[in-house]
Amino acid sequence: MCQEFQCSSDKQLEKGLVYEAIFKATKKGMVEFVTAIWSACPELVSAEEEFTWRNPFMCAVLYRQYEIFRLLCCFSLKDSILAATDDEGNNILHMAAMTEPSARRNTIPGAAFHMQRDLQWFKEVKSIVSPSLIEAENDDGFTPQDLFVENHKGLVDQAKNWIKETTSSCTVPAILIVIIMFAAAITVRGGDNQNTSLPVYLKDKVFMLFMLSNALFLVSATTSLLVFHTITSRNLEEDFLISLPHKMIIGLSSLIFSIAPMMVNFCTSLSIILDGNLWVVIPIICLVAGPVILFAWKQVHLLLAMVASTYRPRIFDRNVKPWM
């Protein structure tokens, strides 16, 4: 097929639906297909979509197909492609500011992740275009930044609600646990020695482990509560790129870390109260550990997803091997 393209005219390519195939493949992310065609016919890189006048790389940005967009990095005429506009005066940075319902979305659920991903896309495309394109206006008078804000108003509201619900789901149980554990910390197990007024189990290693786990838990749980408290609903679009995810990561990390000393505290407390009767202690610990592990697993999954979304490498690698 590629050999036939080399000796075909524009009319033959259009009649043979080659242009349509290229744009469909671009929107679907079929990088092997478009690479093979462009390698055989480099002029097809500048092909324009019917009615919209958009080139394939503009469609790749609009549909969030980074595998295809990264091919632009080693193309000799990338400056002319980046400077192209569609029928409404939108350049390639305007494409990054738009939202396309059928575009490939972030695989991580949650409106905040989708907002973060769109910000990452906009930032990446902005870093390779000329300064004149950053302030260029389309036919409606929108710069890329203005268009981004206008098109993401609904997603910003959804992201704020998602952040609010997530922080509430973590804050409420953390507050309850902190209250309970604080009460446990100031309640001396075994009472005080009447002669010295010191705890009876003061020199017991289990009791020292109990107090140490209490301290670790209260510090980590309180840290998570303070961090979640700083997250407000009045956030700008840019906050979803680094600031809000960073706070969420710190809050979730502290909350998850607090679960381990909480379980240690519970186990040592039972061991002291029941005087080492393992046949009673072990079944109780197993029963209590079930829901705690489920809660921790859910938060760990969210934490890892947020870390991957925030600190992963760039969207596309600019060190692309020559393909033409």
Our measurement of the CA-to-CA distance between the termini, rounded to an integer number of angstroms, reads 17 Å
Q: Could you estimate the helical fraction of the residues in percent?
A: 55-70%
> Judging from the principal axes of the Cα atoms, what is the shape?
elongated
One letter per element, helices H and strands E, the order comes to HHHHHHHHHHHHHHH
**In the CATH hierarchy, what is the class of the largest domain?**
Mainly Alpha
Largest sheet: none
- Compute the number of helices: 15
CATH fold-level topology of the largest domain: Butyryl-CoA Dehydrogenase, subunit A, domain 3
Strand residues, percent = under 5%
Keywords: Membrane, Transmembrane, Transmembrane helix
Protein name: PGG domain-containing protein
Transmembrane segments: 170-188, 208-228, 249-272, 278-297
Pfam families: PGG (PF13962)
Summarize, please.
The protein is mostly helical and about 325 residues long. It has 15 helices and no strands.
What can you see in these coordinates?
- By secondary structure, the chain is mainly alpha-helical.
- It folds into two domains: 10-152, Serine Threonine Protein Phosphatase 5, Tetratricopeptide repeat (Alpha Horseshoe), CATH 1.25.40; 156-311, Butyryl-CoA Dehydrogenase, subunit A, domain 3 (Up-down Bundle).
- Helix content is 64%, strand content 0%.
- It has 15 helices and no strands.
- The chain has helices at residues 2-6, 10-15, 18-28, 31-40, 56-62, 66-69, 78-82, 92-97, 111-126, 131-134, 144-151, 153-186, 205-230, 243-273, 278-311.
- α9 crosses α12 (153-186).
- 27% of the residues are buried.
- The mean pLDDT is 81.
